[in-house]
């Protein structure tokens, strides 16, 4: 295992550090302490070509100015909170409304937009970059002083393991995920429309026009939301299902997982031979297929377009504070939050 670090840029005269981890099989993971952002993941295709399989930038200025959460840790709460309001233990809280009147991905000073402290832990068969951040009571409107730690561990089994740990001194909300956009073609040679995705799930959460959960848990079976036997992304993009059309043709939906740590999510690109297997202890995964990437962005020389990457955001269901039948995102005073997601990179 090999790990190096260098200065990636500066924010408010503070250095941003880039960490590069390489294992003996060619897997390379690069990340920075701004937002805990994964900037690159390099893996080999079936012909041995080492290429980047995630969306990201080469400068800190691009991440600061115009990034749709590329590769970032998002929180305190991933997804949307309706009107940025919620009640806990008899108290009502107003968090920042950074998407229309709603709260999205932690607000204006969410985890994706702060400098994290770092610690490098080297072992014989793995390297861990540990990010830590103290979020004070009232930051973005959330109650409680929160200590958050996120670990990225890369090993010789071609695994990237992301471990999350949080502790809060007041009852609050916490639902953290990683927002990496994957494209297994390598160096953005193609979009993800012909990527085949398998999810062990027969239920998804219905959304309204503001992309908030309606509260309905819909039956995915025998619909374009049924990924149990594998399905190409383009099927949802070309679908006439009202939920696909609602999110601008594609997917931006939470899927409730039927199993954990059992190869429950598999993404494959037939042309390159690359396969990504995701296992988690979270109850759901939000599939976002990059339906709104098109615009003025340029991603390492490639003009942004829809479906250039997709996200697999393992987490508790969004806006659960307003949907009591969803798994809760409440962290009780003095209790810890712990969750883990593993990404295995293989070639077929």
Automatic annotation (TrEMBL):
InterPro entries for the chain: Ald1_epimerase_CS (IPR018052), Aldose_1-epimerase (IPR015443), Aldose_1/G6P_1-epimerase (IPR008183), Gal_mutarotase_sf_dom (IPR011013), Galactose_mutarotase-like (IPR047215), GH-type_carb-bd (IPR014718)
Record has Repeat as a keyword: no
Keyword match rRNA processing: no
EC number: 5.1.3.3
EC class: isomerase
Signal sequence annotation: none
Pathway note: Carbohydrate metabolism; hexose metabolism
Record-linked Pfam families: Aldose_epim
Origin: domain of life: Bacteria
Catalytic activity: alpha-D-glucose = beta-D-glucose
Protein family per UniProt: Belongs to the aldose epimerase family.
Name of the molecule in the record: Aldose 1-epimerase
């Amino acid at each position: 295992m090999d790990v190096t670090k260098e200065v990636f840029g500066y924010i408010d005269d503070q250095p941003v550090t880039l960490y590069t981890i390489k294992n003996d099989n060619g897997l390379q993971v690069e990340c920075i302490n701004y937002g805990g952002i994964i900037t690159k993941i390099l893996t080999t295709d079936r012909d041995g070509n080492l290429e980047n399989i995630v969306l990201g930038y080469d400068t800190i200025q691009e991440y600061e100015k115009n990034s749709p959460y590329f590769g970032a840790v998002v929180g305190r709460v991933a997804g949307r909170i309706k009107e940025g309001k919620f009640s806990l233990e008899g108290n009502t809280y107003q968090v920042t409304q950074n998407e229309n009147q709603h709260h999205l991905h932690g607000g204006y000073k969410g985890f994706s937009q702060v400098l994290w402290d770092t610690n490098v832990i080297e072992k014989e068969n793995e390297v861990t970059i540990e990010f830590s951040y103290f979020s004070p009571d009232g930051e973005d409107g959330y109650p409680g002083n929160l200590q958050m730690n996120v670990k990225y561990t890369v090993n010789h089994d071609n695994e990237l393991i992301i471990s999350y740990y949080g502790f809060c001194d007041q009852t609050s909300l916490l639902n953290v995920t990683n927002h990496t956009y994957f494209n297994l073609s390598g160096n953005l040679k193609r979009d993800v429309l012909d990527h085949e995705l398998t999810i062990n799930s027969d239920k998804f959460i219905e959304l309204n026009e503001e992309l908030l959960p309606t509260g309905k848990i819909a039956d995915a079976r025998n619909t374009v939301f049924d990924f149990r036997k594998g399905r190409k992304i383009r099927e949802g993009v070309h679908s006439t299902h009202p939920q696909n059309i609602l999110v601008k043709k594609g997917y931006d939906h939470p899927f409730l997982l039927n199993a954990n740590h059992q190869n429950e999510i598999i993404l494959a690109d037939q042309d390159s031979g690359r396969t990504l297997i995701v296992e988690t202890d979270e109850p759901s995964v939000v599939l976002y297929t990059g339906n709104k990437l098109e615009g003025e962005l340029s991603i390492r020389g490639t003009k942004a377009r829809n479906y250039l990457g997709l996200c697999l955001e393992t987490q508790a269901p969004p806006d659960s504070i307003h949907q009591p039948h969803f798994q809760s995102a409440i962290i009780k005073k003095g209790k810890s939050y712990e969750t883990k997601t593993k990404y295995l990179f293989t070639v077929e």
